[in-house]
TrEMBL record:
UniProt name for this protein: 2-oxoglutarate-Fe(II)-dependent oxygenase superfamily protein
Top-rank taxon: Bacteria
Pfam name, any one: 2OG-FeII_Oxy_3
SMART domains associated with the record: P4Hc
The Fe2OG dioxygenase domain, residue ranges: 92-206
Length: 210
């Protein structure tokens, strides 16, 4: 009798889904114009529920006000949720208000390995379930690096694996918020803000216990 195959779930990068050309050129240009117009309003990003700044773990800048683009973005992200939940084999859930933000990674920026689910904030009424990241940048592209590295639960030195996803212009990446991931360092020789690696982070949240 042959024995069943060993469990590989902990060694495999989390399931993920890529959608190229997600928003279209017109919306990408409107996003770039919004970033340019609001460049002075971007703030240093933080980590954890307490909002700590730690340049050893995370360097980037964030703008939470998406202005007149917010409503359309909300609708576009919501439109892919059910299909992503099915593809990624997540338990169906009722999404609350989406968490949306615009993040700029300039020269030397990165985000070390982490998960998006806040394990410490057990009192919060809702929690992140599904992470969506939409990438865009000006043309010609002024940076390199900045791959999204999606890890398995097990670290590499214990047989784990990872996959690197290129932050292509107008690419949407979806993965479960519990999956460990990191942003590899960005090189942006001009140092110009508009040459940054831009991304919209979108978190689909569910009411806890539902
Ligand atoms: O920009 C990315 O590729 C992912 C960003 C991220 O992991 C986060 O903000 O939690
Ligand atoms: Fe993340």
């Amino acid at each position: 009798m042959t024995s069943p195959p060993p469990m590989r779930a902990l060694e495999q990068p989390a399931p993920h889904r890529l959608i190229r050309g997600f928003l279209g050129e017109d919306m990408v240009e409107r996003l770039l114009a919004h970033a340019a117009a609001r460049r002075d309003d971007f703030e240093v990003t933080t980590i954890g529920a307490e909002g700590r700044v730690d340049p050893n773990i995370r360097v980037s800048r964030v703008l939470r006000d998406l202005g007149p683009l917010r409503e359309e973005l909300d609708a576009r992200f919501r439109a892919v949720m059910d299909e992503a939940v099915a593809t990624l084999r997540l338990s169906p859930f009722v999404s609350t208000r989406l968490e949306l933000e615009l993040v700029a990674h300039g020269d030397g920026a990165f985000y070390g390995r982490h998960i998006d689910t806040r394990t410490g904030a057990n009192d919060a009424a809702t929690e992140r379930v599904l992470t969506a990241v939409h990438y865009f940048h000006a043309l010609p592209k002024g940076f390199d690096g900045g791959e999204l590295r999606l890890h398995s639960f097990r670290p590499v030195d214990q047989g784990g694996r990872f996959v690197d996803i290129e932050p292509e212009r107008d690419l949407l990446l979806l993965f479960p918020s519990w999956a460990p991931h990191e942003v590899r360092p960005i090189r942006c020789p001009s140092g110009a803000f508009m040459d940054s690696r831009f991304a919209i982070n979108c978190w689909f949240r569910r009411a806890r216990g539902k």
